[in-house]
Every structure is written in structure tokens, then in C-alpha cells.
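Closing statement on the phosphoric acid mono(formamide)ester sub-project.
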Amino acid sequence: MKIGKHLIGIRGLSKADITHILDTAEKMKEISDRPIKKVPALRGKLIVNLFFENSTRTRSSFEIAEKRLSADSLNFSASTSAVQKGETLLDTVLNIERMQPDAYVMRHASPGSCKFISNYVKGSVINAGDGAHEHPTQALLDAMTIREKKGGFEGLDILICGDITHSRVVRSNIHLLKTMGANVTVAGPATMIPPHIDKMGVKVETNFDRALKGKDVVMMLRIQLERQTKNLFPSMKEYYLTYGLTEERFKLAAKDAIVMHPGPINRGVEISSEMADCRESVILDQVENGVSVRMAVLYLLMGGGEDEASN
Ligand code: CP
């Protein structure tokens, strides 16, 4: 079953598509436990990792996923490229395109940039985060982790708290979690919640304690200072006092609730160190699942067959 040529966003994927990606990612996970962590599924394919913004988790897990599938990778970093000499995104892509890549993994600060380049290239484009628009593989790895820990999505009460306005992770997660049947609440200061977000089918709360009550999954988000153009809260200390996840506050959530965060975490701002490292925290499980999800996405987009995946 093909999921399309590109992965620009979760929006547009069906429940069946998402389930198929998660099922494939589960199969891929076993490969990472083998003594020789490699299958020939994408041998001879060239994947270009185009990163115009910083990344630790997404970039390294895509590179590892490509290696595990035996693809060749070209790692492009804007900071050491001719972009610094004034070359545009399109000219950069048109030049690389002449080297015949089979796929691009791209992170860029501009929403819509991945869709834009998909109009000019022959291969697949995978969005690794475009501004505040979408980060589809993050939502998929979050979903894989939720499914592992909770067994499914139907009827789960999920809270996403933080800088909702500037988060691409929240948009991808809302599309995914709503499609899969979960109830989603977003919380944060009113200055960090975009108007009309309720039109996406989520509940909106500005009182964090009220929002936490009975939640099965608590997903905390970083404050994206690099995307904020003005101060949206008085001080970090005040933010932590009002919206920081602490052990005391977490008692308001459901008994078996889990704590998630896409990373990078800012300890003592949106989450305490105790909560980041606690038994209920699945933050590093999310990172681990990132490799399997990205293997699955690359494999499915680039035309792999079911049987070949586990060889
Ligand atoms: N979650 C996430 O996208 O992390 P990086 O910015 O490190 O890739």
C-alpha cells in the first residue's frame, strides 16, 4: 500500500494511511535490534538531507534511518553552503536536482517551503519541519509511542501545552490524533494560542491545572523564542510557575498518564527535571521511535514492497 509520493503534512493522510505507517515502523524497529542493523531495501537510492534550521533528533534519526535501509545520503547544511553567498532555496534545489537524488528530507523556517520544492523535483519530498506549519514525522513517532504505551487512540484524553502558536508539532499532532479518534486539548497562555484553533476540533484551556485533570497523555512543548517577535509572557520564572509541569501538578492527570515532549526540552521552563526524567516520561522512547518511523516513511514513499522490508 502506497501512502503517496511526498510527505508534506499529516493533513490529508487517512486513518488507514497512518495505521499502515505505524505498522511498518513497528516492523522496522526489529531491524535496529539486530547485530547487523541494515537491510538492502533502498540500496542505490540517493537521499539529500537539506537542513536550513538546526536539528539534533530529526536530522540524526533520518541519517540513521537512511543508513539502516542502505540508501546513500548527502547531508546539506545551510550554514556551510552557498546559501551564505546569497543562493536561493530554489536555485540550491535545482542544482542538487542535477545530481539525480531520489528523495529530499527538508527542514526550513518557511511554512510551505517543502510543498514549494516538491513542484520542482522528480523524487519524493519529506517535510522535516517547515516553520510553524507541520512536522509530520514527529507526530508519527509520537503516535507510535502513544500506541505502544496506551494500546491505541480511540477516546484517549490528550493535553498539549506550551507555545501553540509557533509549534509545527502541535499542528501535525492535532491532525493525527483527531484522525485516530483521540480527544485533544491545547493549553498555554492566551498570547501563545492562535485564534480559531478550536476549528481544528480541539478544546482550548488557559488554566493549566484545569487542563491537566484526568488526562491520559501530557505533551509539553518548548517556548519557541526564535519564532516569537515580541515578549508573550513576563518572565521564564512566571511561565514555569504557571505552565511548568511539576510533580505536584502531574498528580492532577490520570493515574497511569504518560509525559511526552518532542525535544529539545528546557528544564525549569516548561518541565521540571524530575518530570523530564521520571518513570512516566517517555521522552527518550519518542526519540528511539523516530528512527523506526523515519525508516518506515522513507521505505513506503520510495516504493518499497512489504516483503523486502524485513529481509
Ligand atoms: N523534535 C525535533 O524536531 O527535534 P530537533 O529540532 O532536534 O530535530
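The CA atoms of residues 222 and 265 lie 6 Å apart. With this model delivered, the sub-project is considered complete and its resources will be redirected to Aim 3.
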